[in-house]
Amino acid sequence: MELPVGGGAELLFDGVKDHHVTLPGQSDPWDMKQLLAWIRGNLLKERPELFVQGDTVRPGILVLINDADWELMGELEYQLQDKDNIVFISTLHGG
Q1: Which of 22, 42, 61, 93 has its CA at 20 to 30 Å from residue 35's CA atom?
Q2: Contact call for residues 22 and 1 (beta carbons, < 8 A)
Q3: Helix, strand, or coil here: 22?
Q4: SUPFAM superfamilies of this UniProt entry (predicted)?
Q5: What are residue 14's phi and psi, to 5 degrees?
Q6: Which of the 8 DSSP states describes residue 44?
């Protein structure tokens, strides 16, 4: 699975923009809620509060699933597929 991060959010991931991820096997398919918890525990390197809020992404983080807004795909309930491309883009910028 591909997990690109951009718009400044990559700074929370040690500056790495492209992540190639193989999730651990489990009996039920992974969903976005589980993926976000996994990202928080395994990929985020600093200040997780700037990326996640509770069990979802914080406001200002655009999430695309295979180039479609995740709101159209079921958000946290979306069940991941093997070749999904999940993109996280920060729309918040300091000034």
Answers
A1: 93
A2: yes
A3: coil
A4: MoaD/ThiS
A5: 60, 30
A6: -
Give me 34's structure tokens. 């589980």
pTM attached to this predicted model: 0.90
Residue 51's nearest CA partner among 82, 7, 1, 85 is 7
Amino acid at 65: I
Q: Which stretches within 49-88 are classed as H helix? A: none
21-45 pLDDT, tens per residue? 888 888 889 999 999 999 999 999 9
42 phi, psi to nearest 5 deg: -120, -25
14 DSSP 8-state letter: T
Count the neighbouring beta carbons within 10 Å of the beta carbon of residue 59: 8
Domain boundaries defined on the chain: 2-90
